[in-house]
Automatic annotation (TrEMBL):
Cofactor: heme
Keyword Protein transport in annotation: no
Protein name per the record: Tryptophan 2,3-dioxygenase
Enzyme class: oxidoreductase
Function, in words: Heme-dependent dioxygenase that catalyzes the oxidative cleavage of the L-tryptophan (L-Trp) pyrrole ring and converts L-tryptophan to N-formyl-L-kynurenine. Catalyzes the oxidative cleavage of the indole moiety.
The record's free-text note on cofactor binding: Binds 1 heme group per subunit.
Catalytic activity: L-tryptophan + O2 = N-formyl-L-kynurenine
Gene (name only): kynA
Organism: Leifsonella bigeumensis
Length: 284
């Protein structure tokens, strides 16, 4: 009998079923480990805590891939392989979209539901996400003070300490531009990369040259626009965070000790690539 008649798909005889001595889907992906890592702490267990845990764990997995891609993009730029770096950045932008879209799943958590298990979270907070901080450092939002919350987590502290002392993707792009004949002040090329990036007016003129003749500087021009996309996407994630927090806890203080939404909103004023925005005012 055909599948259409039985409404049941026949399992083909060649399909492999014996995994005693073979690698399987679950063993390759270490699913036993992955799927035993969701451990609610509310007592009695609250139905919605699993949503809360999985929302964070999936975010951390995407952040892991984002770190991987951004680190590679930065090193490719340093190696003058800008075209390949753009491929990495294209993937990062899709990851950012996933991260931003997934706020809608958590937004189904209502204030009374969250209030029933928030107390169990103690002082745990996303502020202590070392991967989020790693991504911010890679994009250039350096802040040595952020390392303090990782003093009791040596691996995270070391990772962030390393990234703090390394150039960001933007630092490497500016060095690339200098190697390729564009004017980049020595103060930028030799800057202390552990410090937050400072707006440099001379660079706006450099970007004016690129934006004034895209055909001639196509690769640099495309990279500038990709960077603006990265920042735009990052801000969209921050905005959705603020709005989700507002609808779930209003203006309560955060479990991490901050003022809450007001503190989060201040991040919306930060920019990774200030000259790429400043140049827009100068065009036309
Ligand atoms: C019910 C859901 C959530 C609430 C109420 C919430 C609330 C907050 C608050 C109030 C802060 C400020 C720090 C503090 O005092 O705690 C914060 C920071 C943060 N949260 Fe969330 N959050 C939620 C979900 C998430 C999720 C799903 C993620 C994804 C990983 C996340 C990532 C972060 C990050 C990275 C920070 C640091 C932001 C910064 O430094 O600007 N949060 N959150
Ligand atoms: N800061 C949140 C708590 C929170 O969202 C959270 C708690 C534990 C693990 C991750 C969290 N996510 C983001 O801040 C709050 O104040 O309710």
């Amino acid at each position: 009998m055909s599948d259409a008649t039985t409404h049941e798909r026949a399992i083909e005889s060649e399909i492999v079923t014996d995994f005693k001595d073979k690698m399987s889907y679950g063993s390759y992906l270490q699913l036993d480990r992955l799927l035993s890592a969701q451990v609610p702490i509310s007592d009695p267990e609250h139905h919605d805590e699993l949503l809360f845990i999985i929302q964070h764990q999936t975010s951390e997995l995407w952040l892991k891939l984002m770190r991987h891609e951004l680190l590679s993009a930065r090193d490719l730029i340093a190696n003058d392989e800008l075209q390949v770096a753009l491929k990495r950045i294209a993937r990062v932008k899709h990851i950012q979209r996933q991260l931003t879209e997934q706020w809608s799943v958590l937004a189904t958590l209502t204030p009374p539901e969250y209030a029933q298990f928030r107390g169990f979270l103690g002082n745990a907070s996303g502020f202590q996400s070392y991967q989020y901080r790693a991504v911010e450092f890679l994009l250039g939002n350096k802040n040595a003070g952020m390392l303090r919350v990782f003093e009791s987590h040596p691996e995270a502290h070391e990772l962030l300490e390393t990234l703090l002392h390394e150039p960001s993707v933007y630092d490497e792009f500016l060095r690339y531009l200098s190697r390729h004949g564009f004017d980049v002040p020595a103060s930028v090329l030799e800057r202390d990369v552990t410090q937050g990036y400072r707006f440099t007016p001379e660079l706006v003129d450099t970007f004016k040259v690129i934006y004034g003749n895209p055909e001639e500087h196509w690769l640099a021009y495309e990279t500038c626009e990709e960077f603006v996309d990265l920042e735009d996407n990052f801000q969209l994630w921050r905005f959705r965070h603020v709005k989700t927090v507002l609808r779930i806890i209003g203006t309560k203080r955060g479990t991490g000790g901050s003022s809450g939404v007001d503190f989060l909103k201040r991040a919306l004023d930060l920019t990774f690539f200030p000259e790429l925005y400043a140049v827009r005012t100068e065009i036309g």
